[in-house]
Write a structure and sequence with these properties.
This is Ubiquitin protein ligase E3 component n-recognin 7. By secondary structure, the protein is α+β, with helices and mostly antiparallel strands. The protein is built from 12 helices and 12 strands.
Length: 416
């Protein structure tokens, strides 16, 4: 459904006025709904009114760091969504997106001059929390902020699922696949600490290309191919293992359908009595370790071995979350969108369908005025790096209504 500002003359309008572009309110509403959906996914169902401290170490939640209260040189700290609004609304915040198993620090001993307004009875520290340079607004191996005012190279930031740091795509030692081709990434450092993952790469990881020059060389890439010497060395080391499974059989085994679904996480099944270790079988096959990040499809976690020895290894490396499908960022985002979805019709669309074209055009004009003024109003908060609070929005609409009444009272129409 489209309403053209020039297709019907507004009440009191003048003949001969220049035509304005056709505007589809349905498209505008659809675009706003998509933006709201993305926002809900980023927040992952986090409560914007109640501090999350009482929930303990939340599996995943939207987190922020306050540069005003805990600047560089002070101990790092993280705060929940509700505290970012209520306790740090006028402060400079770093958006951390999501961290696993974190408990809100707001108002504890790391904050010298601030007490949490939502949950003041907090312990002094949260010993289970993990921190990195992200809490000071720094990311990647280059230790730069994001967005970086001095970086003129357009680049995508990708989060490692193990250390949860964010990396520039060009600093991962390999050219990342297209963003739609993979769902998770493990950085170089974490691949070294979780070396067992290299055994899975040939069967599960998304293929990449590696750079042949410096990290700053953005254009020259080369397909990863083992040299004949490397192949002979690998064959010599692996030998002919009597219990070796054929590669074709192994591929079939690792390409079984995943049990994970869109927004509902399956229960993690720990098969401690599994007779065959998938990892040990894969380690008998050739695999080439590279100093690069690796990229993985959506269902790869369900194919990791869960035998007794592997479960012990995950525990020792503190990466038990790798066999938990509900730990994924995709599950986190799906929770945010599913919690907010409703089956009822949009009341604004119902109202719009009941209007004639003149009323539709008038509504579009009012909407455009509101959108323009609200954008300008919110830009001030973005420039200052402060959080928009409920009372700020209330104040905006009160002033908007006042300006609208003044415009209406002064309005006179003269048509020839």
């Amino acid at each position: 459904m489209e309403a053209a500002a020039g297709g019907a003359e507004p009440a009191g309008g003048c003949a001969g006025a220049p035509e304005e572009p056709v505007v589809s309110l349905a498209d505008v509403l659809a675009e706003n709904e998509e933006l709201e959906k993305e926002a809900r996914a980023v927040l992952g169902g986090s409560d914007h009114e109640r501090c999350s401290y009482s929930q303990g170490a939340v599996k995943r939640q939207a987190l922020y760091a306050c540069s005003t209260c805990t600047p560089p040189g002070e101990e790092p700290a993280g705060i929940c969504l509700a505290c970012s609004y209520e306790c740090h609304g006028t402060h400079k915040l770093f958006e951390l997106y999501t961290k696993r198993n974190f408990r809100c620090d707001c108002g504890n001993s790391k904050f010298k001059n601030l007490q949490c307004k939502l949950f003041p009875e907090k312990g002094k520290v949260n010993s289970g929390n993990k921190y990195n340079h992200n809490f000071y607004g720094l990311y990647c191996v280059c230790e730069r902020p994001y967005p970086d005012p001095e970086d003129e190279i357009p680049d995508e930031m990708i989060q490692c699922i193990v250390c949860e740091d964010w990396f520039h795509g060009r600093h991962l030692g390999t050219v990342p696949p297209e963003s739609g081709d993979f769902h998770e990434m493990v950085c170089q450092t974490c691949m070294n600490s979780c070396a067992f993952l290299w055994a899975y790469t040939s069967q599960l990881a998304v293929p990449t290309v590696t750079k042949v020059k410096s990290l700053e060389d953005e254009k020259i890439v080369l397909n990863v191919k083992e040299s004949e010497e490397q192949k002979r060395e690998i064959k010599k080391e692996s030998g002919d293992h009597p219990g070796k499974i054929k590669e074709e059989e192994q591929v079939e085994q690792f390409n079984e359908p995943s049990t994970s679904s869109g927004s509902k996480c399956p229960e993690t099944v720990l098969k401690s009595d599994e007779p065959v270790c998938k990892l040990r079988e894969l380690q008998t096959m050739q695999s080439l370790k590279k100093d690069t990040a690796t990229f993985w499809p959506s269902n790869w976690r369900s194919k990791l071995c869960t035998c007794k020895d592997c479960l012990k290894m995950y525990s020792e490396l503190d990466v038990q979350f790798l066999i938990d499908e509900c730990d994924t960022v995709l599950a986190y985002e799906n929770k945010g969108t599913s919690d907010q979805e409703t089956d009822r019709r949009d009341p604004l669309m119902d109202t719009l369908n009941s209007m004639n074209r003149v009323q539709q055009v008038e509504l579009i004009c009012e909407y455009n005025d509101l959108k323009t003024e609200l954008t300008e109003y919110l830009r001030r908060f973005a420039d200052d790096g402060t959080v928009v609070k409920r009372e700020d929005i209330q104040q905006f609409f009160e002033e908007f209504q006042s300006r609208k009444r003044r415009r209406t009272n002064r309005m006179q129409y003269y048509c020839s």
